[in-house]
Design brief:
It is a single chain. By secondary structure, this protein is α/β, with parallel strands linked by helices. A hairpin with a 2-residue loop joins β13 and β14. α3 packs antiparallel against α5 and α7 runs antiparallel to α9.
Amino acid sequence: MTNTKTTRLTARAAYGRLWHGWVKQHWPLLIVSVGLMVVIALATAGYAKFMEYAIAGLEARDASVVYWAPISIIALTMTRGICHYLNVILQNRVLCRVQADMQRQMYDTLVDMDLAELLAEAPAAIAARFSADIELVRNATVAVFGSLRDVMTLVATFIVMLSIDWAMTLALMCIFALVFAPVGIAGSRIRSTSKDIQQEIAQMTKSVNEGLSGIRMVRTYQLEDTLKETSNKSFERLFSLRVAIVKWQAALSPLVETLAGVAVGVTLFLVALRIQTGAIDIAGMMGLITALGVLTNPGRKLTQAFAVGAQGISALERVYGFFDTKNTVTDGPDVVEGGRAKGQIKFDKVDFVYPDGYQALKSINLTIEAGKKYAFVGRSGAGKTTIFNLLPRLFDTSTGTILLDGKDIKSLTLKSLRDQISLVSQDSILLSGTVTENIGFGRAKADEKACIEAAKSAAAHGFIQKLSDGYNTHIEPSKSTFSGGERQRLSIARAIVRNAPILLLDEPTSALDAESEASIRTALDKLSKGRTTLIIAHRLSTILDSDQIVVMDGGQIVAQGTHDDLLEQGGLYADLFNLQFDMSPAKENGHKRVGHSIRKPAVGPVERVFRMLGFQRL
């Protein structure tokens, strides 16, 4: 994404923002969780003190040890086990809620994000943020919470050890302190590699998605091997990165085990010396050795948590970069007066440059009269779709202004502006929900009666009634429930319900057969009456009755007029018309060349009707 900046964060900054933004609000459960951690730490550290008392009792030949020792060990174990279970339940309840809240905020950010930012990253890569990044954040946060419990256990155990022999304990603490230097180095490498892994996962997801979405073309052109080779490179890069991070993670446990072994060896040596001098007894020695055994497990978990936490920082950097993306298309202070525009649109010296540097529009000057039909024609890439994207402010102009009823559209709120516009495109998008809901998406709180009337006007009522549950039939967008023509009619019904004064028709019949096109054109004619209508069409037969035809080429307006005027002028429009209707043989009698086109004699009304119906002249 062009405005997404991934800032390198410290652990404090990364997890501090996570705490204040999403975790802190669950403080009642967290307080209970911390209380359970304290109990777990005391119960775990209590093993060492218990061993000291038990051995001392045995040395003193105290018969009661036979009774209280088993009961105590069972009580400690049960207490620790129950508290650990409750703590895991509470923590995961909080963290699952945090995960859901972050995904919800990420989706809200995505929906509101500038279209230019969305188009800058593949949908599959964006989807990876919802799964891989957020899941990694959750796992890292689990590890961080677990490390808090382990730190408490270490502190409680060291306190117990100090109560047994403070000099020995201080010596052992110095030995354990040596572990932090190599762990810090490993953590830095793990964090760096984890960031590379997350980026490669996004790239891999993108490659897989692109390959499968174009599988028909791939198989037709026998590009399976090329597709496999491209994906395999991504898989291999991901494999190498995962092996690298596993090596660093795997190195931490042996390191801790080795240091723990050194600590035990030193302990035995020092204990032996201190026993000889009478500074410690057998009971104290057993208590210290038990404490060392207790320390080993939380110490190992802390190193693992450190590694996972480092990965979490990389994921948080990517997530925060997503959240911090700044929108440039923002609300203005004004609304449309009276709640409904008249529909006059004026482009005043409008330029538009895409984020990648491509200039799509150059000095567009155009006035569209309210209630009139304006058609935009031209070669692919001429800038027609960009015009349509600028009107509802999916993009903002690079320079120049667009006026609606004399008011700069940037001065209007986005809702106020977009309430004035209906869109019917070549891609008829249906969402999950009933047929009625899909039609009613055009206007908030549209009732069923309005949806049915709109469906009738759009010639959709007949096939809707034949569905299993009629208007209550649930639509699954991934399934081919409707034909292209039926989907288009539902889209038109949605626009009718919206009842906006401005109608954008983006090649609405380009993918339809002749029969479907005829019925839909009738519905579109009804819809466009009384509205300012802008239409993009490659089939010129669909726009011959337009009040004005705007011819575009290379991001500029090269001609404008009625159909007859443009034919008379010649130029690009005449060339396109001649190509579609096969009316430009070089030696046809009665025709004169005008530039690169052919000037035709006046077109009679009968021939014009035939042309509007799409018939070619023989």
